Prior knowledge:
This protein is mainly alpha-helical. It has a domain at 30-96. Helices cover 79% and strands 0% of the residues. The protein has helices spanning 2-22, 28-65, 78-96. Helix 2 crosses helix 3. The longest helix is centred in the middle third of the chain and has 38 residues, at 28-65. The radius of gyration is 20 Å and the shape is elongated.
Amino acid sequence: MEFFLVVGLTSVAAYLIGVKWIGLSSGGLVAGVVRMWECIGAALIFTVVNFSVAGGAILAIRVATGHFMSLYILGDATWLVLSLLQGLAWELWLSDAGR
């Protein structure tokens, strides 16, 4: 529960700093939140694709070689972090291309 309190407080602080000190518009926050959701969606797509390709490769190696390879490697949080970075890079690339 403390997580929500801390995140809420830092969000309000960031909003106030953005509006009062930096001069950002309040209306621009909606566009920023929409873009954030686009990044999260891209990250989720990359996560599904990365897990599917890696899992398929592991299963193919099992079948092709008869050697057991564990799927536990897919439980590493690094997959999620790298997928998030892929999604973020993809969305920034699209926005820079002026889609």
